[in-house]
Amino acid sequence: MKNLFPAFPEDAKLWVYAMPRPLTGEQRKLVASRLAEFVTQWNSHGAPVHGAFDIVENQFVLIAGYVDDGVSGCSTDSMVRVMKQLREEGLDGFDRSWVFYRDGEGRVHSVTRSTFQDLVAAGKVSPDTPVFDNTVQFVGDLRRGAFETTFANAWHASAFSASPPR
Asked: For residues 75 and 65, is the Cβ–Cβ distance under 8 A?
């Protein structure tokens, strides 16, 4: 994965909005337009937030922000409002019920938790299968490879068992 947000400090806040389906070209333009406008006006208690975004794999909208005193709750709320407006237009990155992984050919898939459990139980997901952890919270997490990591190294390994409960 490319080096995202290279000028940002390790502790810059990060939000990941994972879209259940890849964005179309028009959807990608819409997201980029809205976020480009937003990050130029983003403030935290009157101080400009250093903000940036990227769209990864046409499915993950990553937004990073930092300010010397920390990004406030109000400034986070303003960013969430932009994403909620996009949700009203059919682009829902808030639904945490999806699990994202990469297959052996490098394609990203989004499946329900129960489907992912079935894949794990059937041996179609191995400890080395790349998975996406959309719960990462800091730019430093990206740099350490915590966003796209292996099944064995992610929260997924403790949440999904090779032998599902009866």
From this structure: yes
Residue 123, CA distances (Å) to 24, 43, 152 in order: 32, 47, 13
pLDDT at residue 66 greater than cutoff 70:
yes
Nearest to 80 by CA among 113, 35, 49: 35
How confident is the prediction for the chain on average, in pLDDT?
Answer: 92
What is the residue type of 14? L
How much is the pTM? 0.92
Cβ-count burial of 41 within 10 angstroms (0-12 exposed, 13-18 middle, 19+ buried)? exposed
Q: What is the distance of C-alpha 117 from the center of its chain?
A: 21
User: What DSSP assignment string belongs to 56-67?
Assistant: ETTTEEEEEEE-
